[in-house]
Design brief:
It contains 15 helices and no strands. The protein is mainly alpha-helical. It is a multi-pass membrane protein.
Length: 333
């Protein structure tokens, strides 16, 4: 999504916003359903654990289909907000993960999972939330794209550095996996999008739903691996996820405010920093850590859509109140 409400006719803008809200609010419901299926049918679902990486590849391929070379042009046209957002992504969220681990005194498995979520790139749902919050959508797409392309290097390096104290990690293996399930599918999606633009345009309405249904299946598989420990660890993981997400959004907004960037950019930076590619984190945790470490990623997949929708609603309410306080223009006769 690269259009803002000001670039669309009023009626179309309303329909697009309505569709965006439905998507953001329905996505967590679908993912919760996936989690419930994984919990109550843990035996059969856990047998599909080998499908997690191919499914993540599908999610990243759909992301690549929606990207265009112009989405990367902002790196050169407006480098400050892009660089600030990406640095904040890979500094604020890992550090906040450490802070949450310390604050809640999390056990090693959950601590490692929370840190991995913090070291993941930005989430694709952030673009929709930026649109709903009247943020800078083009900037959101660019930030997500750049942080995703940097993930094969930064995610395993930061995870090894920060989470290696909690359990042994294969950083090189993780890096290779991220190349295979993130970088290659995204680049392939971009190429297919350039070669078959008509087909991609026709498929664009269903791509977000395909991505969400795939993440829901991933969550079901991840939850099935630790179904016996969810009741015991569930509330602790939820508390960690909520704190991590809210700290990230608040500090992301503050970082943009520090550089006196416009309000839409502040909102976008908050969203980009606070919303993670938690499906990727859950999949990597399940493969390179253990099933319990994958729980924070699964829970984050639900929560960040809920907090994103709330944030967007607050932003729009602020805009409406500000507009209501503005004096009516005086007609000149």
């Amino acid at each position: 999504m690269s259009e803002t409400t000001t670039e669309l006719p009023a009626e179309q803008a309303k329909k697009t916003e309505r569709s965006g809200y439905i998507a953001v609010l329905v996505f967590p419901v679908l993912i919760i359903i996936g989690g419930l299926v994984g919990y109550f049918a843990a035996g059969p679902v856990s047998s599909a654990s080998g499908l997690v990486n191919p499914l993540l590849g599908i999610v990243m391929f759909t992301m690549g289909l929606t990207l265009r070379p112009v989405d990367f042009a902002l790196v050169f046209k407006r480098p400050l907000p892009v660089i600030l957002g990406v640095i904040a992504q890979y500094v604020i969220m890992p550090l906040m993960a450490l802070f949450v681990v310390f604050l809640l005194q999390l056990p090693p498995e959950i601590a490692a999972g929370v840190i991995l979520v913090g070291c993941a790139p930005g989430g694709t749902a952030s673009n929709v939330v930026a649109f709903l919050a009247r943020g800078d959508v083009a900037l959101s797409v660019t930030m997500t794209s750049v942080s995703t392309l940097l993930a094969p290097l930064l995610t395993p390096m930061l995870t090894l550095w920060l989470a290696g104290q909690y359990m042994p990690l294969d950083a090189s293996g993780m890096a290779l996996t991220i190349v295979q399930i993130v970088l290659v599918p995204v680049v392939l999606g971009i190429v297919v999008g350039r070669l078959l633009p008509g087909l991609v345009k026709g498929l664009s309405p269903i791509l977000p739903w395909l991505s969400t249904l795939t993440i829901a299946i991933i969550v079901a598989i991840v939850v099935s691996g630790s179904a016996d420990k969810i009741i015991e660890a569930g509330l602790l993981v939820l508390a960690a996820v909520i704190l991590h997400n809210l700290f990230g959004m608040a500090l992301g907004y503050s970082a943009a405010a520090l550089f006196k960037l416009p309000v839409p950019v502040k909102r976008t930076t908050a969203i980009e920093v606070g919303m993670q590619n938690s499906g990727l984190a859950a999949g990597l945790a399940a493969q390179y850590m253990n099933p319990l470490a994958a729980l924070p990623g699964a829970v984050f997949s639900v929560w960040h859509n809920v907090s994103g929708a709330i944030f967007a609603t607050v932003c729009r309410t602020i805009d409406q109140r500000k507009k209501a306080r503005e004096p009516e223009p005086v007609a000149v006769s």
